[in-house]
Amino acid sequence: MNLEANVGLSFKGDCEAAFKLYAQMFGAKLELVLTWGASPLASSAPPEWAAKILVARLTSRNMTLTGGDSLPGTYQAPSGFNLCLSTSDTAEAERFFAELSAGGSVRMPLQTTFWAARYGEVVDRFGVPWEVRTR
Question: What tens digit of pLDDT does each residue of 7-47 get?
């Protein structure tokens, strides 16, 4: 069996900005971007939503993120999960945490714990919850 699990994220109109940040941060490649206006679903979206992202895919190392902008009035904030970034490089963990926390909210500062050399939790400025840890 060849099974692959990826994360799909919903945004409230700021998917493009989020994926630009994630691409820069992770040295990732934005493989796919389809706007609402360029899709067969264009008539389902309000005219001002035409440039918003219906679906985007970003790949980097061992990670694939997909995402899109939910139609107005349908967005639901993420809950019940965190995206976890694990690295063996403490400096990289600190950089990820700093970039994700800029304009976001820190749930747990990046610190030494009994289960990780560095561990912290943050919700980025786009409302996505993250854990950052060093192995």
Answer: 999 999 999 999 999 999 999 999 999 999 999 999 999 99
Question: What CATH architecture is 83-134?
Answer: 2-Layer Sandwich (3.30)
pLDDT digits (tens, 9 = 90+) for 72-106: 999 999 999 999 999 999 999 999 999 999 999 99
Q: Where are the domains of the chain?
A: 7-69, 83-134
Q: For the chain, how far is it from start to end, CA to CA, in angstroms?
A: 28
pTM over 0.85: yes
Kindly give, in sequence order, each residue whose CB lies less than 8 Å from that of residue 28, ignoring residues fewer than 6 positions away: 22, 58, 59, 60, 63, 65
Report the amino acid identity of residue 21: L
